[in-house]
Write a structure and sequence with these properties.
alpha/beta; Spermidine Synthase, Chain: A, domain 2; Rossmann fold; 2 domains; four-stranded antiparallel β-sheet; 10 helices; 32% helix
Length: 294
């Protein structure tokens, strides 16, 4: 917490050692040290309700639609026939909300380690997750995502890793063992996407993920979205697929699939989807570096 002399409390984004920025908390709504992490929720004039875990911004009601739409509609529409989806993390249930818009999805399992996040999100993020808990396709599992993927005998068409950053309980969700286990529980044309940080600020994280994806998947890359909450420029979503063609779906086929899906969005469009894989040169170089690593 820091301030500039005014009477408001400020919450600092503490993900990076050398760069910090702070949200003014116009109202602190909830704060708790859960079994796993420090959880804070507050109102901010520009970003609405802001959730922080261990001093790292997770989701805000003002721009959650960008990340949640791009982490769900891109893999599901690229796949084209996804019926069984697995979310690892995702405790605010914003990802689940978007996945369940696809009537083609018959079964969604969400594996979240910290029940406090779900319980608290039910109350404070109902603006984007209320329908999730009434949907009988939704199955919530409280467990470590690593343990679940290592032990389940279920199979999935799409895996969405909506994790915290590779610190604390989230660290294992960036490991080789985790990615290998995910590869093993995906169906033949399965796709995994991951929350993979801001390449300008977390270059090594993306390089390492790509180097690990390629060991168990046919195709490894990333796609981008502009998310104001996550400072430092482009937000990268890791892409790992057993289908070498899925990443290259053109706007034409995506337009047909999106029209058939029959729902509105605020960020995702088929052209944004196709364009999200067009990477700036400095990010292409990070992908290339990851693919070249042993
Ligand atoms: N959109 C956010 C972002 O980009 O950082 C992530 C949102 S969601 C709140 C992240 C969730 O991952 C948290 O609820 C956290 O409890 C959960 N999580 C962290 N480590 C986990 C693990 N090993 N297994 C399952 N869930 C985990």
């Amino acid at each position: 917490m820091s301030g500039n002399g005014d009477d408001k409390r400020w919450f600092e984004e503490r993900l990076y050692d050398s760069t910090r920025y702070a949200f003014r908390a116009d109202k602190v709504i909830y704060e708790e040290d859960t079994e796993f992490q420090h959880l804070a929720l507050f109102e901010n004039e520009k970003f609405g309700r802001v959730l922080m875990l261990d001093g790292v911004t997770q989701v805000t009601t003002a721009d959650e639609f960008i990340y949640h739409e791009m982490m769900t509609h891109v893999p599901i529409l690229a796949h084209g026939a996804a019926e069984r989806v697995l979310v690892i993390g995702g405790g605010d249930c914003g990802i689940a909300n978007q996945v369940l818009k696809h009537t083609s999805v018959k079964h969604l399992t969400q594996v979240e380690i910290d029940p406090s996040v779900i319980e608290f999100a039910k109350t404070h993020f109902s603006v984007f997750n209320a329908s999730v808990f009434e949907d009988d396709r939704f199955h919530s599992v409280i467990a470590d995502g690593m343990k679940f993927v290592a032990e389940t005998d279920e199979r999935f068409d799409v895996i969405i890793v909506d994790s915290t950053d590779p610190i604390g309980p989230g660290e294992v969700l960036f490991s080789q063992a985790f990615y290998d286990a995910c590869a093993g529980i995906l169906t033949g044309k399965g796709i995994m996407v991951t929350q993979n940080g801001v390449p300008f600020m977390q270059a090594d994280e993306l390089v390492t993920s790509i180097s690990r994806f390629k060991k168990s998947f046919t195709d490894a890359s990333a796609y981008l979205a502009a998310i104001p909450t996550y400072i430092g420029g482009h937000m990268a979503m890791g892409w790992a697929s057993h289908d070498g063609e899925a990443r290259f779906r053109g706007a034409g086929v995506l337009t047909e699939r999106f029209a058939k899906a029959g729902f509105d969005t605020r960020y995702y469009t088929p052209r944004v989807h196709a364009g999200a894989f067009a990477l700036p040169r400095f990010i292409e170089e990070l992908i290339e570096k990851g693919l070249q690593q042993g």
